[in-house]
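Repro:
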Amino acid sequence: MIGRVKPTKLVRTRAILIRANPSGSESVPGLKRSDDEAKALIVNIQDQIKAGNSFAEMARQHSEISCAAGDGDIGILYEGRQGMDTAILNTALPLNSGEISPNPVKTYNGYFLVQAISTNEKHASDEDAAYAEAIAIYQEQKAQSLIPEAIIDLIKKSKVVYYVHS
């Protein structure tokens, strides 16, 4: 089944997330930042990056993403990665190595920017093992979704004749 999985683009990504509570409520205990305040902060961070500040350093100082390393590294992303916000995937996957999302993107709990650190086509040799592991996980996940389709194809190709006995 894994042989039927088509190759996909993989992107190792950093992210900066600035959280906001919907309508200024306090759904996240202790967080009182409004949507407008979060958007203003992420735009300010974006301006600092455009002025030459390091994305990784801005992530260390500001990012509120829980699954990221200190420099905002959220790992290798690929189509359909489980447990990852769809907005982040859709923003990160078209990027090439070194590119940063051109505008802040709104997600359900705030605003974010992403940076492509590397891709499966262009990455340092010390990332080979991480990309190989990510490809294996992607192929396994994708293969699971192809099983029903493969069964239907086999049924269509088979020449099963059903006889009813009385």
